[in-house]
C-alpha cells in the first residue's frame, strides 16, 4: 500500500488551495456570513465549473469518477477556508443516491448534482438530537400513490439552499429495521423549512417539517423499505467527509498559530521563543498529523477495503472531534486577547469545530462504536 499522494492528487490539492485563496479569502467568507445570502452562489458556480460537484460521481452520471481520497482532498481545502457553499451536504446526499438509488433514480438526480445545477442535503436528526436508529421516528406511511411523510427533521444543514432532500424515514419496525431513504424535492407540498439558530454562521441549520407530505413510490431510493445496511454505508462515508473538512480547519488553526507566534513580539522578542508556546504548537502538530493519517486511511478504506470502512470511519470521526476542538481552542489561546475578538478568525474555526463535532455523533459516541466494532 502506498501511503503517499500521487502527483495528480498533489496537483488537485494545489489547484484547490490556489483557487480558494483567491475566491474564498477571509474577507469574502465574512461578506457572505454578514450578508443576506446563506451561501455564495458565485463560489458554488465556480466550484462546479472546476468539476468538484461531480468529483466522486461516476462518469456515467456526468462526474469525474474519482475516489473518496480525491473528494477528501477537496473537502480538506474547503474546511481550511470555511468555504460558504453547501458542498458537504450535497456530497453526502449524492453518495446516498449513488449507493441506495435505482438506476432510474441515479439518472434522474445525479447529473444535475454533478453539473452543479442541483444542490442537495441529507436529513436524519430528529427531536432527541441523536442519529441512532432507535431515535428516528419520522413516519413514511404507504398510500395508494406512494407515501406520506409525517414528522420533522432538525439541524438539517443548508436546507434552504437545497433543491433536493435525502430524508431518512421509518416505513415500519423498530431500531435499524424499517428505515428507508427518500429523495424529496424541496417543492413537495406539505414540506416546510424554517431556520434554526446556529452557533456556526457559515453553516446554517434548518428545521424541516413534513405534514402529510405526499411523495410518489419512485421517491423511495432503491425501492428498499428496509435499507439499514445501505444507510450504514452512507453514514460511514459521511463521517469520512466530515472528518476531512475538520482536518482542513485544524490544519489552518495550526498554520495561523505558528504564523502569529512568529509575528507577535512581546518584550522585544517573538512569543514563539517561549517554551509554553512551543509546546502548544508541537502538541497541535501531533494532533493534526495524527488526524491526517486516520482521515485518509478511512477515505482509502471507503472505496478499497469495505470490511474495514465502518471501523476506520468511526475512528476518524472520534479522533477528529477531539483534535479539531483542542487545536481550535489552542489557536485562540496562542492569539491571546485578540483571539477572542470578532476581527480575528479564531472564533469561526472554533465554532465550526463544535458544529462538526456533534454532526452524526461526537467523539464519545464513536469511541463506543469503535469498541463495539472491535468487540471489546
Number of helices: 11
State the CATH architecture of the largest domain.
Up-down Bundle
What is the third-level CATH name, the topology of the largest domain? Butyryl-CoA Dehydrogenase, subunit A, domain 3
Number of strands: 9
Uncertain spans, ≥5 residues at pLDDT below 50?
A: none
Structure description:
There is one protein chain. The protein is of the alpha+beta class and 376 residues long. The protein folds into three domains: 7-118, Butyryl-Coa Dehydrogenase, subunit A, domain 1 (Orthogonal Bundle); 121-226, Butyryl-CoA Dehydrogenase, subunit A, domain 2; 229-374, Butyryl-CoA Dehydrogenase, subunit A, domain 3 (Up-down Bundle). The chain has eleven helices and nine strands. The strands form three sheets. Strands 2-3-7-6 form a four-stranded antiparallel sheet, with no helix packed on it. Helix 1 runs parallel beside helix 4, helix 5 runs antiparallel to helix 6 (103-115) and helix 9 (306-335) packs antiparallel against helix 10. The longest helix has 36 residues, at 228-263. The relative contact order is 0.11. The mean pLDDT is 95.
Amino acid at each position: 500500500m502506498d501511503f503517499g499522494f500521487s502527483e495528480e492528487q498533489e496537483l488537485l490539492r494545489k489547484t484547490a488551495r490556489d483557487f480558494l485563496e483567491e475566491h474564498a479569502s477571509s474577507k469574502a467568507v465574512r461578506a457572505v456570513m454578514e450578508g443576506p445570502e446563506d451561501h455564495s452562489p458565485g463560489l458554488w458556480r465556480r466550484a462546479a465549473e472546476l468539476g468538484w460537484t461531480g468529483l466522486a460521481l461516476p462518469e456515467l452520471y456526468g462526474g469525474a469518477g474519482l475516489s473518496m481520497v480525491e473528494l477528501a482532498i477537496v473537502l480538506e481545502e474547503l474546511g481550511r477556508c470555511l468555504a460558504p457553499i453547501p458542498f458537504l451536504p450535497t456530497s453526502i446526499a449524492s453518495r446516498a443516491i449513488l449507493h441506495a438509488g435505482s438506476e432510474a433514480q441515479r439518472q434522474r438526480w445525479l447529473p444535475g448534482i454533478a453539473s452543479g445545477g442541483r444542490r442537495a442535503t441529507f436529513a436524519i436528526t430528529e427531536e432527541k438530537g441523536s442519529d441512532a436508529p432507535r431515535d428516528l421516528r419520522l413516519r413514511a406511511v404507504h398510500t395508494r400513490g406512494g407515501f406520506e411523510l409525517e414528522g420533522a427533521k432538525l439541524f438539517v444543514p443548508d436546507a434552504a439552499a437545497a433543491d433536493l432532500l435525502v430524508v431518512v424515514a421509518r416505513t415500519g419496525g423498530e431500531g435499524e429495521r424499517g428505515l428507508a431513504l427518500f429523495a424529496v424535492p424541496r417543492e413537495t407540498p406539505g414540506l416546510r423549512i424554517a431556520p434554526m439558530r446556529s452557533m456556526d454562521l457559515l453553516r446554517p441549520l434548518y428545521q424541516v417539517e413534513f405534514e402529510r407530505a405526499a411523495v410518489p413510490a419512485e421517491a423511495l431510493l432503491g425501492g428498499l423499505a428496509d435499507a439499514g445496511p445501505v444507510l450504514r454505508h452512507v453514514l460511514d462515508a459521511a463521517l469520512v467527509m466530515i472528518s476531512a473538512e475538520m482536518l482542513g480547519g485544524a490544519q489552518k488553526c495550526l498554520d495561523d498559530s505558528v504564523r502569529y507566534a512568529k509575528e507577535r513580539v512581546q518584550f522585544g522578542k517573538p512569543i514563539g521563543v517561549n517554551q509554553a508556546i512551543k509546546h502548544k504548537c508541537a502538541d497541535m502538530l501531533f494532533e493534526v498529523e495524527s488526524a491526517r493519517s486516520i482521515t485518509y486511511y478511512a477515505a482509502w478504506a471507503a472505496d478499497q477495503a469495505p470490511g474495514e470502512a465502518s471501523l476506520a470511519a468511526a475512528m476518524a470521526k472520534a479522533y477528529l472531534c477531539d483534535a479539531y476542538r483542542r487545536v481550535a481552542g489552542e489557536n485562540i489561546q496562542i492569539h491571546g486577547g485578540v483571539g477572542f475578538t470578532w476581527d480575528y478568525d479564531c472564533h469561526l474555526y472554533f465554532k465550526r469545530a463544535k458544529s462538526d463535532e456533534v454532526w452524526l455523533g461526537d467523539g464519545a459516541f464513536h469511541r463506543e462504536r469503535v469498541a463495539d466494532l472491535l468487540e471489546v
